[in-house]
Amino acid sequence: MSGQTLTDRIAAAQYSLTGSEVPRAVCKATTHEQTAPKKKHMEYLIQATQETNVNVPQMADTLMERAGNASWVVVFKALITTHHLMVHGNERFLQFLASRNTLFNLSNFLDKTGSHGYDMSTFIRRYSRYLNEKAFAYRQMSFDFVRVKKGAEGAMRTMSVEKLLKGMPTLQSQIDALLDFDVHAKDLNNGVINACFLLLFKDLIKLYACYNDGIINLLVILSCSFSKG
């Protein structure tokens, strides 16, 4: 499907009439077009998270609403937009998502409109699980493993043993959820899943860096314990 559908245009127009620019941008970012969400809409939403007068819960609710669509394209793009804002938006967006009892409930999602819908639905279910795990990890740790400082002065390297013993299993669960996405080259056949893959790949590099920092910290702690013993 190419171009915005009539449904896309009507949804955006409804928000325009009410003066709701942020929900309108969410609709524009999550159209039925089988392409990645447009950069201009993403940048607008990122900037919106920085503005104190912007209603972040309304933004999140609009994304949840779009994730409840029947089309795999709209749902996938709603997840991608959410992920993008988790990584690049103001931290208060992620804080709000982490404060919710439930985020994405897509474990049974299935778009039956053609074989492509079936295939992409599998990845949507896996992707939503990862984003849920990402939000849960933030709730547990009060920081994002992807965004936190890495290296010698990083959070995982300087963390107390008590918090580290809590943090490492939480980090492992997030990594496991990401790896469960389990996409192969043959599946990267449209702009939507390609955009998702790029975000996941970037997350994975940073999650492994955090994990490495945590292991180094544990080894240092154990070494000090043995030397004292």
From TrEMBL:
One of its GO terms (biological process) is clathrin coat assembly. One of its GO terms (molecular function) is clathrin heavy chain binding. PROSITE patterns: ENTH. Pfam families: ANTH. Gene3D superfamilies: 1.25.40.90, ANTH domain. The keyword Translocase does not apply. This is ENTH domain-containing protein. Coiled coil: none annotated. Its main location: membrane. It is found in: Cell membrane. Residues 14-145 form the ENTH domain. One of its GO terms (cellular component) is synaptic vesicle. Belongs to the PICALM/SNAP91 family. It comes from the Eukaryota.
